[in-house]
Amino acid sequence: MARKKVNFECVECGYVSPGWLGRCPQCETWGSLHEVDVEKAGKSRQRRGASGGKAAPLASISVEEADRLNSTIQEFDRVLGGGLVRGSCILVAGDPGIGKSTLLLQASSALEEKGHSVLYVSGEESERQVKMRARRLGVRGDILYFLSETNVEAITGVMEKLDPKMVVVDSIQTLFTDFAQGVPGSVSQVRESSALLINHAKVRGIPLLLVGHVTKEGAIAGPKLLEHMVDVVLYFEGDKGHQYRILRSVKNRFGSVSEVGIFEMKEDGLKEIPDPSGVFSGRNHGEIPGMVVYPALHGSRTIMIEVQALVAKTYLPVPRRVVVGLDLSRSQILSTIVEKHCGVKLFSSDIYLNVAGGFKIDETGSDLAVVLAILSGVREVPVPQNMTAFGEVGLGGEVRGVQLPAQRIGEAARMGFSRILVPDTQHASSHRGVNGVELVPVRNVRKLSEMLG
Known about the structure:
Elements: E1 6-10, E2 16-17, E3 33-37, H1 38-48, E4 68-69, H2 74-80, E5 84-85, E6 89-94, H3 100-113, E7 118-122, H4 127-137, E8 144-148, H5 152-162, E9 166-170, H6 187-204, E10 208-212, H7 225-229, E11 232-237, E12 244-252, E13 260-266, E14 269-272, H8 277-280, E15 291-298, E16 301-313, E17 321-324, H9 328-341, E18 349-355, H10 367-379, E19 387-389, E20 392-393, E21 399-400, H11 405-414, E22 419-423, H12 427-430, E23 438-442, H13 446-451
Parallel strand pairs: 6-10, 6-11, 7-8, 7-9, 9-10, 17-18, 19-22, 22-23
Antiparallel strand pairs: 1-2, 1-3, 4-5, 11-12, 12-13, 13-14, 15-16, 16-18, 20-21
Helix pairs in contact: 9-10
């Protein structure tokens, strides 16, 4: 009997070695080389390329608005960049029980209501389980077809027979193909199964939505290569004990990666929140020290988000710095800037920073709001209810300009904020076209101490 020929392939960079290595010599990742059957891998590649194709001049390829499928879920379409692109592959990841299946079932129902047939494939749930969820969500299911299957070849066969306008696979970690070794969920199975489905969807111009599991660290389970293979990567985030959910884009070949969609989980499914500023700006600012509302920029819109700071006396040798929703390193720098330039002592105080609603702020424009919140917390003086702030803070305490100040000011004015702290360098340009709003230029954070008395 002939000996089976195998290679070892790195799941991170694709490096191929005839023998096993503990560390990939190309990307220097430990434990990333996995065994690959050369004969089966060759058959899989031949199958994926069996459809062939002809090269055509790029100028002769037409792209029309009809190449996108729009659902009635505006928050979902916003994150995708305007709708589902035909032939695109979208990976949706999130914690267990966060609502991924509910979101995609509602998106499938929305397309069904517009007359588009949808194929929903589930490798985890039975027909009865999905039917119970569909009944709770009010899904009709006349042209929404359900398939309980884990074999990729069987799924592609059904796709050819039905020719749906969209396919949902829940989840990619449960599938297997006959052209790869390993159990479902293994590196080789996830890679080959994804490649077969993506190739099949692109050739026929069908949007493909894949549900992906996440590890305990929050990363998508399986090979990192999976995120490179797909066109869009979405994370569905939120606390299961909290009713709000955030759909965030981290990769999008057809739109912005800064867009977020806001949903509220209710008994009959996910409901859109078209005006998130009214939900996440809070109602207690102006009454409790350490609370500041910040106009955060997310893609094409601005959302008023509440930044909270709690400063308390420490009983530990090293004061605690606990941060949720902000960058820890930058928060530590800002607390040091407050101590250095605002005349307060924080070496004997614990500082707790939080962003309300489960949001995450990763832009430096929130620096001035964070400094103001820390200063308000340590002085125990509430920030006025009509005041908001934005600007980047340097190590010298200087306040620098940020992107789209006029858009931030417009949203703050719409929400009733009449006094806005802005960087001194952007005061003149931002003052145009603003009525009933006082723009206070801030050159250095030392001025904040005077504002709070």
